[in-house]
Structures are given as C-alpha cells and as structure tokens.
Amino acid sequence: MSVVGARPNFMKIAPFIKVISKYNELQEEKIEHMLVHTGQHYDDRMSKAFFTALDIPDADINLGIGSGSHAEQVGNTMIAFEKVLLKEKPDWVIVLGDVNATLACTVTAKKMHIRVCHIEAGLRSFDDQMPEEINRLVTDRLSDLLLTPDELSIENLKNEGVLKSKIEFVGNIMIDTLESNSKKAFNLNIKDIIKDNYIQKQKNNDLNNFNFQTSHFALMTMHRPSNVDQKEILNPIIRFLLDEVSIDMPIIWPIHPRTQNQLQQFSLWNEIILNEKLIVLNPLGYHEMLKLNMAAKIMLTDSGGLQEECTVLGTPCLTLRWNTERPITLRENGGASVLVGNNISRIRKEYKNTLELNRTPDRPKLWDGKTAERVLEAILKANK
Ligand code: UD1
Predict the structure, then answer these.
(1) Are 340 and 46 in contact (CB under 8 A)?
(2) Which residues are annotated as catalytic?
(3) What mean pLDDT do residues 117-131 have?
(4) Which of 42, 51, 67 to mutate for ligand 1's pocket (most ligand atoms within 8 Å of CB)?
(5) Which ranges in 89-172 belong to alpha helices (H)?
(6) Which residue is closest in CA terms to ligand 1's atom 15?
C-alpha cells in the first residue's frame, strides 16, 4: 500500500506504480497494490491535475484530510489510516518524501507491526524548525527499508545508527518522471502556458510585450512558512523582485495557495498582480512547470524538488533557504543551486554572479530514470 498526500509526492509515485504494472504483466505471482491519498492537497491544480497529467490511477482510498494545523493533519491522518490498515492488512506501507502524510502513515503502520519502506530516505537539513525535517527524522527512525536518492544520505543514516542492512541506494525517483515526460514538456508553448494559467484577470496586460521565446525570464516559486508567513521577511523579497529582477527580465511566478493567502493578508497582493513584468500564474501542471524550467534563465525557489530538477536540466538556481536537505544539488557539490536564504544583499550578490556564470552541472549518480525499478527490486528482496 503506497501513500501520497501532497503535491511533491505525486511525481514520485507515478513511476513506482508503472513499474508494478509492468512487473504484473510479466510475472505469474502478482503484486497487489493499493494507493491511498490522504487528501492533504485537495485543489484540482495541486492534486488531480497531476494524477491526470502523469497517468496515475485514481487513489483506491482518499482520506479527505484537507488543510489544518500540523497536529490536525497528522492526527486526522493517523485516525483515518488506522482504519484502512485494519481492513486491508497490507504487508508493506510505502511512504515518500517528507510531508505530513509520510510521518502520520509511518507511525500508524509501525504501531500495527506493518513494515514501512521510505522512498527518499536520509535527506537532512539539520534544521528542526522545518516541519519536513521532523517528518524525515521520525519516518527514517521507524522505517524497515530506507531507500536513498544519493550517497550523502547514506552517511546521514549511518551517523544516526541506522543498520546498514536496512539502507539501499536507489537514486532519485523524481528524475524517472522528469525523463519520461521531458519530450512532452519540451513541445509545449510558453505563451500558451501563460495564457492558460494567468491569474491577473484584473489587469488588461498585453502578453505580447514579452518575448518569452528568448528564454530571457526568471522563474520563481515560494511557499515555505519561513519565507511567506512573516511580512518582515516576505516584503523585502517582493521589493527585490519588483524593483530589481523585473527591471532585467520578466518574472514568471506560479503561486502556491499558502503564499497567495499570505500576500493578500499583508496587503501586498495588488501591487504584485498589477506589476506588468511579474506574471503571476495559478499552480502549474507538471509538464508546464517543466517546460518553464527548461527555458528559464534563472530559478528562484524554496522548493526542494525544483533544486533537483534544476540540477538535471542545468538551470541556475538561487535557493531561498539557509540550508538544504539536498546538498547534492549545490554548486559546490556539482549541482546547479546556491543557498541565498532570505537576506536581500546575499540574494542580490548571488543573482548577479549567477547570471554571469556559464556552467553545466553534473548529474548525480543513479539519477538515471531507472530508480523505480531499483525501488521495486529492493522491496521484493526485503520481503523474502
Ligand atoms: C506541503 C508540504 C511541503 C511541500 C509542499 C508542496 C508538509 C509539512 N509540507 O506544504 O513539504 O513542499 O506541500 O506543495 O506536508 N492549500 C490549498 N489547497 C491545497 C493545498 C493547500 O488551498 O490543495 C492551502 C491551505 O490554505 C493550507 C496551505 O495551502 O493551509 C498550506 O498547505 P499545507 O498542506 O499545510 O502545506 P504546504 O505548505 O502545501
């Protein structure tokens, strides 16, 4: 039984489900698989659109958890998931990444003596102010099979005393999805993406003013509470975007619902949507975001997944965080990204540096599009 809850889980589960179907076509002894969606992300654009675009079958069970505080999301998921486990009695629960569903379902399964496999184990930011770090720590402490995306993660787990026999280096499953969808994404048209997802209905903006085909635009995403929940932090970032970056090039910003809510609360929303060079879009589909990432001159983001995709696509990336659980994506380790936190002078300096740099990042080991196969092999081996 695999569990997904929030947007970053969907692109990780897609290749795993495909590999199970392929296995079942070829083997006599079939794997019975159920998909549970906790419902943490529920907007069509945050959830259903990914199921459709990535050809993920509908979840067998949706727990309908929705928004709430962390304790509410985790607690409600545990109560609902326990009932599912009592009825379905799976041999394994497969969890992904670091969202609240990952933590909640791991704890519930382990208390019922059901084995847990964690895909994307061992990532550490060493920052326990991040809700995701707590989710990662607890999940890895309890999991029976820990599948890591890189070798640095193996070291983290060993340092925490995890038995070597529980750890397997499989690579990054999200890159399987990137590889199998890059052709479709490449063929999309950027102007169509903007027209179809434009949020600034109030503004009679002439999109033809921008020449997107030249790839001369910055791509922006931001949703972390540490960046968007306080006006003193969010406001200077917005000023930098509006007063500096937008002078150099247009900025495309697909906006997370949390961030939109916060900008509205802080009375920053109107200025943003009225700015002609800042193109605010609804949350984008997988292929649309991939196409923009392929074409962007520079990425500004606080997302972990985008840091990884930039490393594979070669898009220079300013990571709006002070730390990362994905050090393999950093320039000093061969990747595409540099940590800039939310200090404007640091962001400005690295923004200028990055535009002058011309380099191709190294692709990390086993980010080869074949991770899902290794995931299934590892589970079958552990099941013996
Ligand atoms: C979650 C994950 C984070 C991941 C991010 C990607 C946790 C702890 N965090 O954060 O690791 O990077 O997803 O998107 O699990 N909302 C909607 N519609 C939705 C979903 C959310 O409007 O479909 C709004 C709600 O107002 C909610 C807010 O966005 O309160 C934040 O959503 P939440 O599920 O709490 O976490 P994310 O910030 O999305």
Answers:
(1) no
(2) 223
(3) 97
(4) 67
(5) 100-111, 131-142, 151-159
(6) 99
